[in-house]
Amino acid sequence: MAFSKSKYFKMANGLYYFHLKSGQQNILMYRQEKEKAVDAYYRYVKVGKNCDWLGKWTGRKFEDSEVPPKPED
Fold first, then answer.
1. pLDDT in tens, 20-36
2. Which H or E element spans position 22?
């Protein structure tokens, strides 16, 4: 059984996205606020997950795609 390569969702404008790579799966995570997105990103990194920061989706491209600095605990 072959799976479709197309996405079954549309990315919303103004949200912050990052990829969580887990085995053969790439999970796309998002948060509405940058602080919460950065916190979630670094929590996954802390437990040893392989993550890629994508940034804020504007409808055509990702802005603010630099990996943000780690927040202080």
1. 988 888 899 999 999 99
2. strand 16-22
Is 10 in contact with 43 (CB distance < 8 Å)? no
Mean pLDDT over 41-46 rounds to: 94
Under DSSP, the state recorded for 65 is: -
**C-alpha span between 55 and 64 (Å, rounded):** 5
From residue 9, give the alpha-carbon distance in Å to each of 19, 23, 28, 41, 69: 15, 21, 11, 21, 29
Q: Are 39 and 33 in contact (CB under 8 A)?
A: no
Distance of CA 32 to the CA centre of its chain: 11
45 vs 3, higher pLDDT: 45
Task: Please provide the distance, in angstroms rounded to a whole number, between the alpha carbons at the two ends of the chain.
Answer: 47
In residues, how long is the chain? Answer: 73
- Tokens standing for 49? 């997950």
